[in-house]
Amino acid sequence: MKKIIITIIAAQFIFAANAQIAIKADLLYTVSGSPLREAVVLVKNGKIENVGIGLSIPEGYRIIETKVCTPGLIDARSLVGISGYLNIPTDQDQLDKTSPIQPDLRAIDAYNPYEALVKVIRDYGVTTIHTGHGVGALVSGQTMIAKTNTGTVEQVTIKPLSMLAMTIGSSVSGNFSSPGTKAKQIAMIRTELLKAQQYQKNQTDKDSTKRGSKDLKMDVLSMLLSGNIKALITANSSVDIMSAIRLAKEFNLKLVINGGAEAYRLIAEIKAAGSEIILHATMARNGGDMLNMTNESAAILTAAGIPVSIESGYEAYVPKTRVISFEAGQAMAHGLSFDEALKSITLHPARLLGIDGRVGSIDKGKDADLVLYNGDPFEYLTKVCGVMIDGVMVKEGCD
Amino acid sequence: MRKQLFLASLLWLCASAMAQEKPVAIKGATIYPIAGAPISNGILVVHKGKILSVGAAGSAIPADATVLDATGKVLMPGLVDSHSHLGGPEGGDASAALHPDARAMDAVNPTSDGFKKALAGGITSINVMPGSGHLMSGQTIYIKMREGHVIEDLLITNEKGLYGGLKMANGTNPMRAAPGVFPGTRAKSAAMVRELFLKAMEYKAKIDKAGKDVSKMPERDLRMEPLVEVLQGKRVVHFHTHKANDVLTAIRLGKEFGFKPVLHHLSEGWKVANEIAAAGLASSIITIDVPGGKLEAIGLSLTTGAALEKVGAAVGFHTDDGITDSRLFIRSAALMVREGMSREKALEALTIVNAKMMDMGTMVGSLEKGKDADFIILSGDPFSIYTKVEQTWVEGIKRWDINNPKDKAFLTGGYDVYSPIRGEFHHHEGDEH
Known about the structure:
The complex is a heterodimer of chains A (399) and B (433). Chain A is of the alpha/beta class and 399 residues long.
């Protein structure tokens, strides 16, 4: 008996790892091109082997039929896997309050691929997350990019260091005795970046005795200054967004504005600065720095030519995370087109995160990350009936 | 000057009277009366704040009626929210865990712009409750989304002659680190409640014994009076309870003292659906997108609605605003339909079931002759993300219209739309839901 079970498990494992799958979709959103009716996606060795209408399905491929198929969804800014669903001190690893500036804190040292919410959002079709340190510190730490499947952090990680998570706003002064004001927040960041400039200079000195000792914090800030990683600055009020833009200009940072509740008021300034934006969840609560948010932000920014990626973002309480397909759906209900709503949780974040060579659309050669639905992906009554990551079905069935 | 004021107010009175003097007939919509099967191409006639008739195409329209065309739209009763924190309903303070005497009525801001969210979401009647950081945080108020400048303008006096219930809670929220004042355990929580209800029973016995002899009545006691109303079956206990074991405790307390609590939130209601049905209790459940965020909600499932429907228990929904947004109340119901509830029961859960659990089922919650003229007009299927609430009418007066830019702003938000001081956000920090 035991032997039979082992054989079955082994067989399943081999089947899953080497599976060749053909997805037959009544309606396929490649996202990179127009929607395709009666289309087929061929999946082999974890990659998209081919996609199109009227493809013949080679022998040995397992056929899965679905009404609708989209690329795996990409959460542009999440805390899932780091800020756990129990919401007790031992599962909250997003914010260390010993110091307001800690660029040395790595997300990969905290991310838990088995955290309950990872499965929850995976079952809703989220296959890639940009997750990591939280909001509420001037520099709370690093972010990373991972697939939402299980395994060791090394196995699921796409990029161990993606961006530096920074915050300008009232939450920072709530978490630390200093900075206590907006002006002090900016002064402290500038001071630290000036130090990093000096450190960079010293490190490249021809005279090795003048280089000084290595510093974890300064190393990461140097990467920020040299543009190797982007500055992910959470800023929601107009004042704070402008501070972020001013900082980016002074230190030549690659700025991603996160939150951006009042970004719709600063379209010219954001475009002039060339900043990217990861917009707050549409259903985020309109309090505090986000008092003036509007459900129409995604539509307004998109119309102005600024690509919008929608985040789940940080939630301190209930619900512990937002679900990006629900949030993009609400943005659509408030003026964003269906296509742009879908892009805001697939191709736009893939580009912003620099991973569009692998994910974000259904194209030949990309990772086989797919979501199957029994109807319109944004409709309230639609269920996710299948999720594939790297060619493996990680969810099958509508329940 | 005084004369001018008098004239102005006279004119205002005339205007508001005129608004109701002529009947209004709305024709062409698919009407979900809730009291019966949907009527396609139906006609609703309202007059003087009440419903005059609900009928099929061709049914009588009074000759003097203003006729509005709602062809292609969906018309249903104004939604009833059985649990909300709009308007800043503070109850008791940190001096004790039980505050039957604290009234939300004395705290709620009647002109809170939060109520605009309710109107934008199609909500016309609300049970506004103090938070759940106490075993008993105080008396709730039942209010109608009328125009008003004092809280009395908004109150709904129900079939039992009361305008509110009593908020209770168990589980983790009332278990605070304040020994001697707040309970530290679940058993202590129940013991403290039982002790207070024992006192209330003694107090009630004195009243019963005195009968009509006023001289024998016990001294007035503000803490005891609302509890006597509970024991008499007049005042409804709205009981915040999430985990299966806490739900069973709420049921047990109700049985011991002879009251029927409405069970609120019920993250794990799906685990104890049979017990809830056997106790004959109504439930008011919350829809949260994901489980967790607090220990008592880690078992949350959106199948609770379906599980309770299956065993024949009465199911209502609530927003718990600001936990979920009043503008998205219908969405809450839709997600429960996605997870197995019938459309019919989900519509009832937004309307008549909530009305009944607050003893106002004969007044609001369905479109029937003689009931309050509270109704909403939707652009299409209530359970579609593409559908919008277009108009919200309260007692025959249109209170919100998506085509009015000022009204629409409260749906979308934007710069300087909502006031920074409106009260209902304070409890996010206090972990009190």
